[in-house]
Design brief:
The chain has 89 residues and is mainly α. The chain has one domain. The chain has helices at 4-14, 18-26, 36-50, 56-68, 76-84.
Length: 89
């Protein structure tokens, strides 16, 4: 389970609410995490919601992590941090 602190950190960095993230998460099922097309759509949704662009390279890494490595949904905290990180300039 993702603790409340991570939602607070995300809200501060991206202005995305806990409610918005949970709503998005509730639309998924564990099998979606193994479907490359669904993962790319999810990444685009999160990127748009957070206002943080995700490069093709970063998208490929995220998809690979989920699809190829049989991602454990219990490890969402590290994924949320990675996806909401502002790009380095």
């Amino acid at each position: 389970m993702v603790n409340k602190d991570i939602f607070d950190q995300i809200k501060k960095k991206t202005n995305v609410s806990e409610h918005a993230l949970k709503s998005l998460a509730n639309q998924l099922n564990p099998n979606d995490l193994q479907d490359e097309k669904k993962m790319r759509a999810l990444i685009k949704q999160i990127s748009a919601l957070a206002g943080v662009p995700v490069s093709k390279e970063k998208e490929d890494k995220i998809v690979g992590y989920f699809v190829k490595n049989k991602f454990n949904p219990a490890d969402m905290q590290s994924v949320i941090k990675q996806m909401t990180q502002q790009p380095k300039k």
